[in-house]
Amino acid sequence: MMVLTLFLTFAKLGLFTFGGGYAMIPLIQKEIIEVNGWLTMKEFVDIIAVAEMTPGPVAVNSATYVGYKLAGVCGAAAATAGVVFPSFVIVVMLATLFLKFKDAPAVRAVFAGLRPAVAALIASAAIALVKVSFVDMAGPIVAVLVLLGTLRLGLHPILAIVIAGVLGLILY
Question: Which of 79, 101, 104, 162 could form a disulfide with 63 if both were Cys (CB 3.0 to 4.6 A apart)?
């Protein structure tokens, strides 16, 4: 029964979320923590951190981890299939329509309306993660150093993650 619940929960997330993994984070958080009580906020933040460091989309990695934690390999497969399935079906159905109508004013207007909403969802996710990620003054310092390193020095994101991990080992 848990396997079916995982599939349906993540299919709902996959069906009603636009903007990719970052935009899904607040919805995943609500379903996993508040609605179903499957994880704590600390566990959720850890999942997002791991999902960021591993190859693949955040939503898929998160679904796989949650599914595995709750129901093993079958749960991981069900949650992953659930989060991917709606997008796959929708993309296949809409691909030809989009190519035909992408320059239509109504289509452009819809995308113009979706862009700010997606940006707001990403900002909301960032604020929620900041609230639980900074446990002491070292956290914001590491965050600022990584931000400056990537923006000012052109530090590659993978190197920034490795450096932050090393700093975490040293500081914590």
Answer: 79
